[in-house]
Amino acid sequence: MEWFNKHVSFITRLTFTQKHITQAAISLLVLPAFFSSYSVQATTEDRFTEYVHQPIMVNYANEKINIDGVPNDADWQHANWHPIDNMIIGAAIDKNDFSGRYKLLWREDTLYLLTEVIDDVLFDQTADPTVLYWDDDTVEVFLDEDASGGEHQFSHNAFAYHVALDRQVADFSTQKQAMTFNEHITTVWSRDEANPQKVYWEMAIKVFPDNYNDSLTAFDDHQVSPVTLSGNKKLGFMLAYCDNDGSKTRENFIGSHPIKAVNGDMNRGYKDANVFGHIILTNKQN
Ligand SMILES: [Ca+2]
Ligand SMILES: [Ca+2]
Ligand SMILES: [Ca+2]
Ligand SMILES: [Ca+2]
Question: What's the gap in Å between 237 CA and the centre of ligand 3?
């Protein structure tokens, strides 16, 4: 009896009346329609589907590019400009605060990058190239040799090279420490003679594969070699600029490719190569 008293309200709820049966029947008719509209909504609002970018075609350089910060090499004239115009961190800015664009070329042993930047204040706050380098004015080159995508913050599945004004190149190591990779990128920048607001930043990049060993120097006898580039090769690539004009931390971070926010955060390139775009090396013209 004690058991019955304890459970009586539950048993009462289970007692079907004609009204309950009618309600249940209506629910069975309505529920499938509800779940089918829900599944359509869930698919179209899937925020973890990354943007799909049109690949950028990269022309072959008939001659080695002279890395002097002056873009008068003949081969640059047949490379297209691509914009750096997606705000990843910070409020909207005017074109004198920052505007930028870039070109790419390739030869068998080098990927060439020319970045044209207008930045009102060039600022290198921290001298040590491995400390807070993302808060200095920096061109950040994201490169995934085999276009695999995926996590890369503390591996070399992809690189996020921070190229600083003092020409030092920093990224995280497999030991989860910031280190320099100065042998990977040779760079020189200079101001345009006619319009000194404009800076040309030329780079020659050695493309290292995923199994790069950062406990050795880049050209150690036991180090993996940079890959030899060839026509039709596809790489993961993205470019960004960290702009600071005198603040404690960077004011803006502007990228070449839009990135979907996860929990409001679009700054995902330094750890996830899935947000990169792709470049395809065009065949050499004979
Ligand atoms: Ca040059
Ligand atoms: Ca600026
Ligand atoms: Ca990779
Ligand atoms: Ca700046």
Answer: 11
